[in-house]
Design brief:
Radius of gyration: 21 Å
Shape: elongated
Distance between the termini: 36 Å
Main location: nucleus
Keywords: DNA-binding, Nucleus, Repeat, Transcription, Transcription regulation
Helix content: 40-55%
Subcellular location: Nucleus
Strand order of the largest sheet: 1-2
Number of strands: 2
Number of helices: 16
Order of helices and strands: HHHHHHHEEHHHHHHHHH
GO molecular function: transcription cis-regulatory region binding
Pfam families: Myb_DNA-binding
Strand content: under 5%
Structural class: mainly alpha
DNA sequence: AAGCGGAGCAACCGCACAATG
DNA sequence: TCATTGTGCGGTTGCTCCGCT
């Protein structure tokens, strides 16, 4: 693709990001947002490609990231979602506020896979090894997580496949049941607005008018009542569904989110760049921002939100942040 | 103390898709 | 309709750390 030569031509930096680079990027995004990643490096004065900036922001600098070890509940959720979604890390990540797809992918590849194997479960099929021998391929958990449009005969058949696979898996939930449970309020299997159309949406073919990124959005709603009950009930978990109810249009009210969930000194959150900034960069947990990448209205809203969240941090912690070292 | 190997993690690569001209 | 550009995603690589010998 000529990417290498492009990098050489532009003398772009690669490899680990320095604190100075992080600072530049963070400042730039706080000030201008990121309407176009390709222009960010130039505007921010970075010798990086836009892609690298985007990745750095998403996986590391974003203020709503939750760092540190995954809890057992989070691991369980990942396993359950993987049984249904396969390697669609971004969709799985959408269900875990503050976690990135990269983080989850790494966790899966390094820890969870191993654990499952040790317990006699094939991480690809989520079935006991003894049961797999001689059985048909598992459509859901095949190596490549990306689902091509051409593979989608229809949303309904895919949905059925997913459901079949999930229900066949030991101990894992049935999508239809979940959606049915969700339907006690607004959705039903037969009228799930997310699944009516198979237009050009990636993955599971969603109704574009609803513009939520994926089926994950549906499970956000569903899982909020099922998965998260055992989790921290005063943070993200209890809000996922309200986000849905709010009609996919409401960004978190930062004034009410304020103080809702910060990284507390007692938390075992690992702080790297923030440590560089004297170790006191406390970021609010803003689950909707990460978990619900709205498409409609999107970039401006997202940028605006990023700016707001950063500003909020800045306001709350003025003694620390203005002291960015240069 | 040095070497080795595995684990964990950050970042890169290549591809697919969407948007735009 | 086609080409180009931008973005997002999943797979993979390579570096660092740490425990073991």
């Amino acid at each position: 693709m000529g990417k290498q030569s492009y990098l050489h031509k532009q003398k772009l930096r690669r490899g680990l990001w320095s604190p100075e680079e992080d600072e530049k990027l963070l400042k730039h995004i706080a000030e201008y947002g990121h309407t176009s990643w390709s222009s960010v490096p130039k505007l921010a004065g970075l010798q990086r490609c836009g892609k690298s900036c985007r990745l750095r922001w998403i996986n590391y600098l974003r203020p709503d990231l939750k760092r540190g070890k995954f809890s057992q509940e989070e691991e369980d959720i990942i396993i359950e979602l993987h049984a249904v979604l396969g390697n669609r890390w971004s969709q799985i990540a959408a269900q875990l506020p503050g976690r990135t797809d990269n983080e989850i992918k790494n966790l899966w590849n390094t820890c969870i896979k191993k654990k499952l194997r040790q317990t006699g479960i094939d991480p690809n099929t989520h079935k006991p090894f003894s049961e797999i021998e001689g059985t048909e391929d598992d459509k859901i958990s095949s190596g490549s997580g990306r689902l091509k449009q051409t593979e989608l005969e229809s949303d309904l058949t895919l949905m059925q496949d997913i459901e079949d696979s999930a229900t066949k898996s030991i101990g894992y939930f049935s999508l239809s049941k979940l959606i049915c449970s969700a339907s006690t309020t607004t959705l039903s299997v037969s009228s799930n607005p997310l699944l009516l159309h198979n237009q050009n949406n990636r993955g599971l073919g969603l109704n574009p008018e609803l513009s939520c990124s994926s089926i994950a959005s549906a499970t956000t709603f569903v899982s909020s009542s099922i998965f998260y009950n055992s989790m921290d009930s005063n943070s993200s978990s209890s809000k996922s569904s309200s986000f849905w109810y709010d009609g996919l249009s409401s960004w978190p009210d930062l004034t009410t989110e304020r103080g809702n969930k910060y990284l507390l000194p007692g938390d075992s959150e690992e702080m790297k760049w923030p440590q560089y900034l004297q170790g006191n960069f406390l970021a609010p947990s803003l689950p909707h921002y990460q978990s619900q990448p709205l498409h409609a209205g999107d970039l401006q809203v997202e940028s605006h939100f990023a700016l707001e969240s950063l500003n909020l941090c800045f306001q709350n912690h003025q003694p620390e942040l203005p002291q960015l070292q240069s």
